[in-house]
Amino acid sequence: MNRLTERFFGASSGIFSQAEVAVALEASPYSRHALVKRALAKGEILGIRRGLYCLAPRYQKKPVSVFAAAQRIYGPSYVSMESALGYHGWIPEAVRACTCVSYGNAREFHTPIGFFLYRRVPQRIFFAGVERLVDPSGNVFFMASPVKALADYVYVQKPEWNELADAAESLRIETEDLASVSRDQIDELSEDYSNSRVRRFLDAWKEGLSA
After folding, report:
1. For the chain, which terminal residue's Cβ has fewer other Cβ atoms within 10 angstroms, N or C?
2. How many CA atoms lie within 13 A of 32 on its CB side?
3. Is residue 44 located within the same domain as residue 73?
4. Concatenated DSSP letters for 92-156?
5. Do 96 and 179 lie in a common domain?
6. Dihedral angle at the C-alpha atoms of 158, 161, 166, 169, nearest 10 degrees?
7. Rg value, the chain, Cα
8. Is-contact 127 142, C-beta < 8 A?
């Protein structure tokens, strides 16, 4: 096992950066670069993106969390849209990409651990309606609430939804889930978006709760 692999074997997330390699190993930049190249060549580590790596599956003490990786691949960002709706159990089908909202420009990353899609959504407070969660394996990630995830989806996809029932039918969301949201949750996020399409959708959602 490569010395680099040994150093990060059993690391909490299994993901590490070039900067973390420099801190963990007392060696010259040339030596560290050589260690990374050898570990990649032997298949002991995988390159996620430039300067970011993870242990290969056979060296992981626990699987790498796609959600935890998302913020390290491109940030600031949080998991949202279809991925967040799937996480909360609001949509039934599996999501092929990890869909995220980023503070920066839209990006896409095809990596050995999955496809990551980032979209920029202008908002007043970027992390409003976003929770910092820890999974049973100790992985930390930022996840949008269902309301936030749907608001982001409306901004990015621009669906032609005339009423809340259209959203339920389009994404196969149970009406009970839509009805479980409080008016305060919607009001909080409605103030966070200036986009008129998103605000109309949130207003329609709130009206549907009072009907």
Report:
1. C
2. 15
3. no
4. -SPPSEEEEEESSS-EEEEETTEEEEEEE---SSTTTTEEEEE-TT--EEEEE-HHHHHHHHHHH
5. yes
6. -20
7. 20
8. yes
Query: Do strands 97-102 and 52-55 pair parallel, antiparallel, or not at all (unpaired)?
Result: unpaired
Per the structure, the complete domain to which residue 75 belongs is given by 66-210
Contact indicator for 39, 45 with CB cutoff of 8 Å: yes
Predicted confidence at residue 31, as pLDDT, reads 87
3-class SS shares of the chain: helix, strand, coil, % to 5 = 45, 20, 35
Residues 74 and 161 placed together within one structural domain of the fold: yes
Asked if residue 48 lies in contact with residue 54, where contact means CB atoms within 8 angstroms, the answer is: yes
Across the chain, what does the average pLDDT equal? 90
Average pLDDT over residues 39-65: 90
Whether residue 33 contacts residue 22, with contact meaning beta carbons closer than 8 Å, is answered with: no
pTM of the model: 0.91
Contact present, 110 and 133 (Cβ < 8 Å): no
Residue 82, classified by CB atoms within 10 Å of its CB into exposed (0-12), middle (13-18) or buried (19+), is: buried
Same domain, 38 and 79: no
Q: What is the mean pLDDT of residues 54-64?
A: 86
Per the structure, the count of domains in the chain is: 2
Tell me the two tokens of residue 51.
Answer: 């300067």
Summarize the confidence of residues 48-59 as an average pLDDT.
92
